[in-house]
Design goal:
By secondary structure, the protein is an alpha/beta fold. It has seven helices and seven strands; from the N terminus they run αβββαβαβαβααβα.
Length: 181
Amino acid sequence: MMENYNLFQKEEAVKIKRQWVRLTRACNNRCLFCLDNEAQDGSCIDFSIIKDTLARGRALKAKKAVLSGGEPTLHPELFKIISLARDLGYSEVQIITNGRMFAYEEFLRQAVNCGVSEITFSIHGHTPKLHDRQTQVKGSFEQSIRGLLNARKIKGLIVNVDIVINKMNVGYLRQIIDFFI
């Protein structure tokens, strides 16, 4: 019986109307496969534009705000943005991130206290060597994994992982999946 309920819950989650919001044109990784690298100029989107985008989403009955970038955790007004999304009536706030900032427990705690309900970590390998080679940042794997483990400690927080499959990691896909399971 519980199995059927979980399937129903997952099915309903897919139907939730979302408002995607870009917070930055900056990232602290330099992923070789990044499709957004041409848009990266190191800037953060102005708070007024983010506010308008969030308000527009609520006017269209979106229930979930999806905060992305670049790297959204680099926005200096991140906590204010998360709080605004909740104040506007979003029932869920998701961040899509490389997770490096969440290695700092206080930063993570503050994001959750402001209203983050889900974090999707973009991690592209199961070893420092494989992941760091793709992000071109030594130590990024360790920071991202520390952030992921910190997030898993928070009761009720939805935590998941995105893996960009590419020629560097496709041969390790089984090991990567097993690692995250």
